[in-house]
Amino acid sequence: YNLKSVLKSWKFYQMFLIIFLSSPFGFFMANYYKIMGMKKINDDLNFVIIGSVTGLVNGLARFLIPLVVKKIRFKVLISLLIVIQIIIIPTFYQIIENQSLFGIWNAAALFCQGGIYAIFPSATHNTFGKNLWTESYTLMLLSFVLSNIFHFCISSTLLDLVGLEDVLWIYFALCVVAFF
Predict the structure, then answer these.
(1) How many whole angstroms separate alpha carbon 113 and alpha carbon 57?
(2) How far are the Cα atoms of 13, 36, 81 from residue 49, in angstroms, in the given order?
(3) How many CB atoms lie within 10 A of CB 1?
C-alpha cells in the first residue's frame, strides 16, 4: 500500500462511511439527552448523574474497545456497536419515563460512540499496515470531523422543523445504512 492506493481502496471508503454514518447519534445524545429527558423526568440531579456516568462510560469504551479489538474481528465489533444504536434509537421514547432505563440507554449510546471512535486506530493499522497507519488514520479522523459537522447541520436546521423524535429516526436510518 501507498497513500494513493489507500485513497483508491474500497476498504478505506467503507470504513470512512461507517464512521460518518454511525457517529452522529452519539454526538446527538451527548448534546440532547437532558432536553429529551426533561419532557418526562423532572429530576435535575438524575440528569447530573446520567451525564457524569455516560461521560465515564464513554471514556471507558475508549479504553476497553482497543483491548477487545485484538480478540474480536473489526467487522463483528463495529456491527455490534451499530446494532446497539439501532436498538436504542427506536426504543428511546418508550423507556424515557423510567429514570434507570433512561440512564442505561444514554450510557449505552455514549459507550457506542466511544467504541466507534476507539476501534478505528487498530482497524486502520490492521487494514493498511504500520507504514501507512499515520496517514490513513489521519484521513479516517476526518470522517469524525465531518460527521460532527453533519450532526450540527441536522440539529441546527431540522430539530426546530421536525422535533427530537423525528431527528432520532434520521439517526436510526443513518445507523441502518452504516450497518449494511
Answers:
(1) 10
(2) 38, 15, 23
(3) 15
pLDDT in tens, the chain (180 residues): 677 888 888 888 999 999 899 988 888 887 776 767 667 777 777 777 778 888 888 889 998 888 888 788 888 899 999 999 999 999 988 887 788 888 888 899 999 989 988 888 888 888 888 888 888 888 888 998 999 898 888 888 888 888 878 888 888 989 999 998
CB contact set of 155 (below 8 Å; sequence gap of 6+): 28, 31, 32, 167
Closest among 99, 121, 108 to 80, alpha carbons compared: 108
* Residue 93, CA distances (Å) to 33, 40, 114, 165 in order: 11, 10, 23, 8
User: What does the alpha-carbon distance between residue 92 and residue 164 come to, in Å, rounded to a whole number?
Assistant: 11
* Predicted TM-score of the model (pTM): 0.83
Half-sphere exposure of 35 (CA within 13 A, CB side): 10
Query: Look-up: residue for cell 440532547?
Result: 32
- 12-18, long-range: CB < 8 A, 24+ apart: 12/127, 12/128, 12/136, 12/139, 12/140, 15/120, 15/123, 15/124, 15/127, 15/140, 15/143, 16/139, 16/140, 16/142, 16/143, 17/143, 17/178, 18/78, 18/82, 18/178
